Amino acid sequence: MTPLHDAAVVFGRKSLESLCRFRSNRNVTHLRSISSRGIVTNNIQIAKLHANLVQTSAPPIHLPNIFNNTRRYSASTINFGNDKTKSISNSNDQTITTQNQGGEKGIFAKIWDRYSFQGQQKRIILGERLFRSAQHRANDPRWYTEGRIPFEFRPRHAMITMHVWFLHKRLLIDTVDPHLALLVQEELFDILWNDTRARIRAEGVNELTVNKHLKDVQQLTFMHLTHYDHAFQEFANDDGKRFEELAGVIWIHVLNRDEEAYNDQLKRLAAYVEYQYVNLMHGVPDDYFWEGRIPWGDVPVFADMKDNDGNVLDEPVTEVEGLERLPEPWVKTLTDAGSPYYWNTDTNITSWKKPTL
Question: Which of 22, 3, 19, 33 is nearest to 225 (CA)?
Answer without folding.
Answer: 33
